[in-house]
Amino acid sequence: MARIDYKHHDKILLAVDCIIFGFDGSGLKALLVKRGLEPEMGKWSLMGGFANKEEGIDQAAARILVQLTGMDKIYMEQLHCFGDVDRDPGGRVVSIAYFALIKIEESNGETLDLHNAKWFDLKKLPTMIFDHKQMVRLAKERLQQKVANHPIGFELLPNKFTLQQLQGLYEAVYETSFDKRNFTRKILSLGILQRLDEKEKESSKKGAFYYVFDKKKYKQLESEGIKMI
Amino acid sequence: MARIDYKHHDKILLAVDCIIFGFDGSGLKALLVKRGLEPEMGKWSLMGGFANKEEGIDQAAARILVQLTGMDKIYMEQLHCFGDVDRDPGGRVVSIAYFALIKIEESNGETLDLHNAKWFDLKKLPTMIFDHKQMVRLAKERLQQKVANHPIGFELLPNKFTLQQLQGLYEAVYETSFDKRNFTRKILSLGILQRLDEKEKESSKKGAFYYVFDKKKYKQLESEGIKMI
DNA sequence: CCAAAAGTGTTATCGCTACACCCATGA
DNA sequence: TCATGGGTGTAGCGATAACACTTTTGG
Q1: B30 exposure class (CB count in 10 Å sphere: 0-12, 13-18, 19+)
Q2: Which of A5, A90, A115 sits opposite B6 (nearest CB)?
Q3: Chain B residues contacting A via beta carbons under 8 Å
Q4: Which domain range does residue B16 map to?
Q5: Above 80 in pLDDT, residue A224?
Q6: How many angstroms separate the CA atoms of A99 and A87, rounded?
Q7: Is residue A38 domain-shared with residue A84, that is, in the same domain?
Q8: Which of A72, B58, B133, B157 has the highest count of CB atoms within 10 angstroms of its CB?
Q9: Do B123 and B175 sit in the same domain of this protein?
Q10: Which residues touch strand D (CB under 7 A)?
């Protein structure tokens, strides 16, 4: 490599796109927005934006997420960087995709409306711009992998939840179904759930106990590489 | 989002850095180069370069890899995008890290020398520039995950190899040791190795059979999500 | 009393782990 | 013949998967 400095190299537009997952009890959802700029204005798109020179890319992603949801402290991680030359017909833009997990029932409907955002079932996604469909597919795969070994499923549920809700979430993520007895035994045996005295009485007469995720107990076990499912 | 176009946004330098792994029978190695430009000229660094406007980022990574090794058709995948504002004191550079697996004995020593490149045992890495140490650490973690479920370990071995070489590789990747009988049984039961009639006679009098990875058989099994180890 | 969801145990199978001896050969 | 690494089988254990009935209670 020659002794050149940085000045002679190309600078490129850097975007961030967020795959925002939610769970409403029935299926896994992704939050999409109607794109507000050309090209492809008016089509469905992931929430995104450009990264500024003065901020780190993780900060850029966090900024964009706050913009759309108004929510702070959202679980988020980088997914992949998409950099094909022609991925965006509007110019040479390299996009870094992040995926985020939010508690759908805590999201603010008005803020979402402001951005023309809408939840879509992952199995019924509309046509999306650019390579966004590929991003969602990859994000779903990553979520499946991650959820098997890390307690991030709870990010998609209310703070207190029933075992059936938790099972429903895992079933939605994996698009399969589990035996109730085996699931219950396994998840409780991890020792990271705390049962409350309170019951959820909406969906049954008997009522189902609420549980909360016990982050402290989890931290103690974390080092050993806990297996969730 | 307002109806703006792309022109008003920041453009940023985009770099690619490659974590190149090799295995020489004793330990897992990474290929590092002496940096040829300021800042930090002369220090150890991952092989890297800037992405051009006219090429995709995967192509940029492939180009840089060929530059250093002279080798084509190398296994490579994107690792992570590093974009902290201050990661490079020479300017605002976002770097996309790739990791690659090469057959160390097929590498061309002269080409490596041209670039001041040297293999380092992963346990004895020198001080490296910027966030390159973090990149290597992450790459190693990813390699461990990946190797458990995908047949990419073979990329680090000669085309024909003995079972002991293969076991040595897995032991190096996981920094542990396996029981020879259990390892042999498991790896052979996958049905993706083909035994040759030829024996390796260097390291023992009896001689050990050579095996080759049977890519066709693997492809047949791939859909079901084979578990390597 | 009945409908509807909650909660709970046992058994068979499979995969993993631990463990030790004989084989083939060149020197 | 002997030293060296190559090659092989078995038994115990723990995890997983399959499977159905009883409990609670509001209407």
Answers
A1: buried
A2: A90
A3: 1-6, 9-14, 33, 35-38, 41, 49-58, 60, 78, 80-81, 83-85, 90-94, 96, 115
A4: 6-127
A5: no
A6: 19
A7: yes
A8: B157
A9: no
A10: A 179-182, 186, 201, 205-207, 227; B 162-164, 180-182, 184-185, 199, 203-209
**What does the pLDDT read at residue B3?**
40
Distance CA B152, CA B226 (A): 12
Residue A112 sits at the vertex; the CA angle it makes with A108 and A118, to the nearest 5 degrees, is 120
Residues B184 and B86 in one domain: no
Joined tokens for residue A22? 């939610």
Q: What CA–CA distance (Å, rounded) separates B128 from B17?
A: 13
Q: What is the pLDDT of residue A37?
A: 86
Q: Is the pLDDT confidence value at B109 over 50?
A: yes
Residue B32 binned pLDDT confidence (cut-offs 50, 70, 90) = very high
Decide: helix, strand or coil at residue A42. coil
Q: Which of A107-116, A171-180, B174-183 is predicted with the least confidence, judged by mean pLDDT?
A: A107-116
Q: What size, in residues, is chain B?
A: 229
pLDDT score of B1: 41
Nearby residues of B34 by Cβ (< 8 Å), 6 or more positions away: B42, B43, B44, B45, B116, B117
Q: What is the pLDDT of chain A when averaged over all its residues?
A: 94
Structure-block tokens of residue A94: 């390299």
- Asked if residue B10 and residue B123 are part of one domain, the reply reads yes
Task: List chain B residues with CB under 8 Å of A84.
Answer: 56-58
pLDDT at B2: 39
Protein CA at A204 to nucleotide C1' at D27, angstroms: 12
